[in-house]
Amino acid sequence: MAALTLYGLKNCDTCKKAMSALDADGHDVTLVDIRADANLQEKVPLWLEAVGPDKLVNKRSTTWRGLSTEEKSEIEQGKAEALLIQNPTLIKRPVIETGADIYVGWTSDVQAVF
What we know:
By secondary structure, this protein is α+β, with helices and mostly antiparallel strands. The chain has seven helices and four strands; from the N terminus they run E-H-E-H-H-H-H-H-E-E-H. It has helices at about 15-25, 40-50, 55, 60-65, 70-75, 80-85, 110-114; strands at about 5-10, 30-35, 95, 100-105. Strands 2-1-3-4 form a four-stranded mixed sheet, sandwiched between helices. The mean pLDDT is about 95.
């Protein structure tokens, strides 16, 4: 199986569930903390291009609720990159890179792939 990189937070319950499930299925998974270890300058533009802001921005997060109306409208106008880099917790987690594909979240659709 290919090595997977899971971008998330060490204390995120969803990321923990994803790591456990992927480990149990025999995947070689590396967790990269999006606040401390990820190169968001490089990754965010790639993720936005691959999945778009609707999938990548976590609109249920406390960070989202704390944004101004102006910042929220910027994201909805397709200008999410700078805000996601400045606020890594705005990124829906986990982001899973397989080398060829990028998956966001730990929904049943994503789980079915693995």
